Please model this.
Amino acid sequence: MALARIFLFTFVFLVLSLALLSSAAEGASRRPPRHGSKPRRHSLKAKRGHSKKGPRRPTLKGPRRSGVKSQHSRPGSKAPLPVLAFTTPLPLPPPVFIGSVVDARTYGATPDGQSNSKAAFTQAWNAACASNGPSKLLIPPGQYFAGEIFFEGPCKNPMTVEFQGTILADPNPDAFQGNEGILFQNIEGLTVYGGGTYDGQGGVQSWKNGQSRLMPISIKFQKVRNGAVRDLNLVNSKGFQMTITSCTNFLAERLKITAPADSPRTDGIHLSRSNGVQVLNSFIGTGDDCISIGEGSTDVKVIGITCGPGHGISIGSLGKVPQEQSVKGVYVGHSTLSNTDNGLRIKTFHDSPPLEASGITFEDITMVDVKNPIIIDQHYKSNENQGASFVKISDVHYRNVRGTSVSNVAVSLQCSSAIPCQGIELADIDLALSPNAPKKFPLSATCSNAKTSSTGKQNPPACR
Model:
């Protein structure tokens, strides 16, 4: 009896379902076409296309505008809005991270500005690095005190670090045995971002010690392939603020890097032995070079930099130690230097190993009260070494450099007597003596052992 009832109920349910589906299908066939769609008979005509009856006869309604329906709509209906044939797509929102997120607080990172979170950061990184899928290490807002932090690979997948908080470095330089505050090393695929801050907590004593010993680097990227760092703040480093060493295809952009003008050896970004590095749209003001491009750097682009105070943007110094590698393919453009001790500089040591600096372009640069706006110095710290420099400098272009100088010698090309500079181009140089210059003599250019060519405006007059 129970089975019979179940069978009867099932049969009635199926009959009612079929009836409802049939009614819905009939209603859909009678429903008028939606706004923007065409009746089926139009699509059939479109398929027939070029029939034997000849072209369609013109109508009295005039040509129909593409994308705009007729304004003769039925009474009581609203006229459809016109549709533009070509529209600019709205920008897409930033991609949402898909993968596992490891919060450093889960491993004991404490945002109180006092507890040492060094071990917690390392453990959180190791957990994310070992994940079987894409992973992100999250450093939430707050102040975290930490000594040296090691973020090392290889990892199973590309890594992301969302750096939102502030890391306060241990103010004691002796707490950094590895000579870096944060080390990213041996990583394939890395993105670091988030608007956070690394405070190196450098001070008068550490900067004084930095004149006689190497001080800790705030953030170091070493042996990173396909990496990016963006939207970070670095302040008051004890030593170099950021270094990019032995990296390939690396992007640094939208960084703000600051240290007092009297803090020695606090280079903003230092590159060495890296290929395909781009440094873009950043503000850098330090007590040393804003950007220094060291030995072994190739295919480098530096664009959109605001530099000052500091020692300008430099190639080098080169030739200090044996087995250094050449620098080739550097472009520095669309940047502004303000109140810097040097402008665009290439510097090499005496008694150097043989190497080259070539394929270098400085273009569209604005100088504001800069000392030594254009300078090649192959006698850098000549009191430390005897003899000449054996760094061959060639194929160097200064194009559209304009602004004000506070030094009377605005262009100084002091090349090696052993290997003179070759292929130095000066094009459209327009520099004027600043009202703030200490000595009111006319600007001049000086050259030694340099083969130059000049085109366009030359203020000061080019040397020969």
Notes: Confidence is low (pLDDT under 50) at residues 24-94. The radius of gyration is 33 Å.
